[in-house]
Each structure stands twice: as structure tokens, then as C-alpha cells.
Design a protein that fits this description.
CATH topology of the largest domain: Rossmann fold
CATH superfamily of the largest domain: P-loop containing nucleotide triphosphate hydrolases
Number of strands: 14
Bound molecules: adenosine-5'-diphosphate, magnesium ion
Shape: elongated
Length: 330
């Protein structure tokens, strides 16, 4: 099922700016490990506007890296086409390379060169390059300029791999799962860096992730992809408003409510009893405003106390569940 939301269909809702990336009917066919072939990328079309942070969200194996590598000109498509700033990823590859920065998912660097030496070496591949010390300073690694990559923490290594994608001062940066495997603190540091690359350095950012919060936090627009196809594409808020329906109301009660009266409360679509020793419930509701007052009336009538009530708004996780029929992390 493909859901193109209302905003996605209206071209006047695209953010301002030129077209940075154009992907048209992209297909990549691979040999299946057991039998025949399959489409890892199965007819993708989307555009990224200049100045955007564009998130590609999907589970492992969705086709995110393959899509990025084709846009970057590192792989050829089976059919369809991609371009960056109007330069075809295949035909205009050399010209395109000077304008893009590429962070690979599994970066491996020469073991015996320091951070500073590596950046100078990468810079030498381009007609113009930024000074290594300026780059390291940008990501808080100036003090580590004589260190080897192997001596960095996970977060530092990720920051280095991002700045290594910026030696040629590109107009657009492609980041493939930049925070996978990092602890929450290091992840937040990286979010700040990615935001700064977009806002202060005015670079377009295309990033893949399988973290919902990350897509929600950083992206102006998000494409949810699954099995090589776009399932939904919009702003995070637009996706939640249009594709996630229910809030959840969670509470504990001093007495059991087993007679179905919770199901009868206005706007309630589902009742779940939590089995954690106390009488704890989660209600799915289309309208907490209708459900919550009615819940307190019911409590007063039955003479039970309600404790620890929380109302949770729907998230991108719910959107993902609605459009793909499963959770992102099973
Ligand atoms: N070179 C390849 N040969 C065969 N299958 C591949 C190759 N590269 C990726 N795949 C398969 O294509 C699918 C998409 O992979 P990938 O683009 O890496 O997904 P993601 O980055 O979203 O995890 C997966 O099923 C993967 O196993
Ligand atoms: Mg990948």
C-alpha cells in the first residue's frame, strides 16, 4: 500500500529553493541469495529541495543504502535515473562529485594516518578543499588531530566520518545511518552537528536512519521506505497528523474494571489491560478530550481512584505501524 499524503501531492507545498536531488522511477535488481532476482529498490521517485534535511526512514534491508549509493554515483541503477543539482549521477558523475559529500555506512580509513593527514589526503583528490584544521575544529576534534581513527570513541569516529565527507566543501551531504550504534549522548551531539551543517553551513542534507526519533527530530521531510518502495512522504508533523490516529491514555486504577465500561467511554477504540500486578490500563482514543473527563466520571461513580494518568500523542512510530503494518524495530 502506498499512501501519498495530501501535502505531498501538492507541488506548492514543496519547501522553497532549487531542486537538489531528483530520483525518477528508480529500480535496483539484485540476485536473491536463494532464488532468482528481487528489486531492492522498487520504483522510487522523490525530490529533495535545496536547503532541506531530507530523511529516509526504514528498517534494515529497506533499500536505503542502495538508493543513496545510486544517487551518489557509486552504483548504477537497473532502471530509472537520479540527478543532483541537475547533474546526472551516471552521465555527469565527475562534475557531480565536486558538489557532493559522501559519508559511507561502514567507513574504514587507512590505519596509520592521523586525522589531519587523512583529511589532507582526501582534500588532495579535489580541485578545492577546506583546511584540515578548520574541519577538525568544526567537529570538536582539533585536539585529536594527531590521533589515529582507531583511537577515537564511537561518537568521535562518527563525527570524523561526517567531516571527512565535507573536505570539498560540498553543497549537499549524504549521511548513511550516521548515529547507528551510538549512545544517547553521542547521538544528540551528532544531531547538533547535522543541524549546524544544514543551518550554519547552508548545506542540503540527505540522511538515512532506522531511528524514528532521529527522523522526527532532524528532518524537514521524511520518506518512509519499506521493501524498496515509498510508503509515505511528508513533514514529520504532516505524517503524524494525517496517518497516525489514536492517542493513548494510560492509567492505574484502585479497582479492577472488567465489565467493558472502559470500551464504552467516548472515542475509545481499544482497551488494553496491562498485567503488571496493579490494575493498569491503556486506552486508545481518537479524542482524549472526550475520553478523559468521562473516565473520571466513571471513576467517581464506581468509587475507585485513578493514579498516574498520562496522555501520549501519536508519533512517527504509529505512522510507521499504520503504513507498513508492523513496528520499525520488531
Ligand atoms: N550487492 C548486493 N547484492 C545482493 N543483494 C544486496 C546487495 N546489496 C544489498 N542487497 C540487498 O538489498 C536489500 C537492500 O539493502 P540496503 O540498500 O543495504 O538496505 P538498507 O540500507 O535499508 O538496510 C537487502 O535485502 C540487501 O540484503
Ligand atoms: Mg543501509
Amino acid at each position: 500500500m502506498t499512501i501519498l499524503t495530501e501535502t505531498e501531492q501538492r507541488t506548492d507545498h514543496q519547501p522553497p529553493g532549487d531542486n537538489a536531488v531528483q530520483v525518477s522511477n528508480l529500480v535496483k535488481t539484485y540476485q536473491h541469495p536463494e532464488d532468482g532476482t528481487f528489486n531492492a529498490v522498487d520504483g522510487l521517485s522523490f525530490e529533495v529541495a535545496a536547503g532541506e534535511v531530507f530523511g529516509i526512514l526504514g528498517p534494515n534491508g529497506a533499500g536505503k543504502s542502495t538508493t543513496l549509493e545510486i544517487i551518489e554515483g557509486l552504483q548504477a541503477p537497473t532502471s530509472g535515473s537520479t540527478s543532483v543539482f541537475g547533474l546526472d549521477s551516471q552521465a555527469d558523475n565527475a562534475a557531480m562529485k565536486t558538489r557532493i559529500g559522501v559519508q559511507l555506512q561502514a567507513s574504514s580509513y587507512f590505519e596509520y594516518l592521523t586525522l589531519e593527514e587523512l583529511l589532507s589526503l582526501f582534500g588532495s583528490f579535489y580541485p578545492k578543499a577546506l583546511p584540515a584544521q578548520e574541519l577538525l575544529d568544526k567537529v570538536g576534534l582539533l585536539g585529536k588531530r594527531k590521533a589515529l581513527v582507531g583511537q577515537l570513541s564511537g561518537g568521535q569516529a562518527q563525527r570524523f566520518s561526517i567531516v571527512a565527507a565535507m573536505v570539498n566543501d560540498p553543497d549537499i551531504v549524504f549521511l548513511d545511518e550516521p548515529t547507528t550504534g551510538l549512545d544517547p549522548q553521542a547521538r544528540r551531539n551528532l544531531w547538533d552537528l547535522i543541524r549546524s551543517i544544514n543551518e550554519n553551513d547552508a548545506k542540503t542534507v540527505v540522511m538515512t536512519t532506522h531511528y524514528m526519533e532521529e527522523a522526527e527530530e532532524l528532518s524537514h521531510r521524511v520518506a518512509i521506505i519499506d521493501a524498496g518502495q515509498i510508503q509515505a512522504l511528508d513533514t514529520p508533523v504532516g505524517l503524524v497528523n494525517e496517518l497516525a490516529t489514536d492517542h493513548s491514555v494510560v492509567f492505574s486504577s484502585s479497582g479492577a474494571i472488567t465489565d467493558g465500561s472502559l470500551d464504552e467511554l467516548p472515542a475509545v477504540t481499544n482497551v488494553e489491560q496491562r498485567s503488571n500486578g496493579v490494575h493498569s490500563y491503556a486506552l486508545a482514543t481518537r479524542s482524549p478530550q472526550q475520553t478523559v473527563p468521562a473516565l473520571f466520571q466513571l471513576a467517581a461513580l464506581r468509587r475507585f481512584e485513578i493514579d498516574g494518568l498520562a496522555v501520549n500523542a501519536p508519533t512517527l512510530e504509529d505512522v510507521f505501524l499504520n503504513v507498513t503494518g508492523r513496528r520499525l524495530r520488531d
